[in-house]
Structures are given as C-alpha cells and as structure tokens.
Amino acid sequence: MNGLSTILIVVGLFFLGGVYSFAKQGLPKGVVVLLSVAAGMALVAGVLRLDVWS
Predict the structure, then answer these.
(1) How far apart are CA 39 and CA 33, in angstroms?
(2) Helices marked H in the chain — which ranges?
(3) What's the CA gap between 18 and 32, in Å, rounded?
(4) What whole-number distance in Å separates Cα of residue 24 and Cα of residue 16?
C-alpha cells in the first residue's frame, strides 16, 4: 500500500461522510449525487492503485 492509494481511500471516505451529512441536512439531490460520484471515484482509484493485484 503506497501513499497515494492511502490518500485516495481517505479522501473517498471523507466524501462519503459528506454525502451522509449533506443528505441528512436536506441539501439538493444534485449536490449529494455529485459528491457520491466523487467519493466512489476516489475509492475505486485508491483500491485499484493497491499493490495486491500484481
């Protein structure tokens, strides 16, 4: 596990917390969807950069 994959996973989890918070506050659905897409992309990128695949 290198540093960039760790950072991407942490950022993805941070965005997921934001998705939960924004949804609970009742913000517009577009903002929540955009943040959830960003969280998913960061998590997928972090997992794919792990060195366990090779």
Answers:
(1) 10
(2) 3-25, 29-48
(3) 8
(4) 12
CA distance 35 to 23: 10
Q: Which two tokens stand for residue 30?
A: 């577009």
CB 22 within 8 A of CB 6: no
Which tokens sit at 21? 């918070």
pTM: 0.86
Q: Is the CB of residue 15 less than 8 Å from the CB of residue 39?
A: yes
User: Quick one: angle between helices 3-25 and 29-48, nearest 10?
Assistant: 160
In tens, the pLDDT along 2-34 reads 899 999 999 999 999 999 999 999 999 999 999
Q: Which residue has the tokens 């949804």?
A: 23
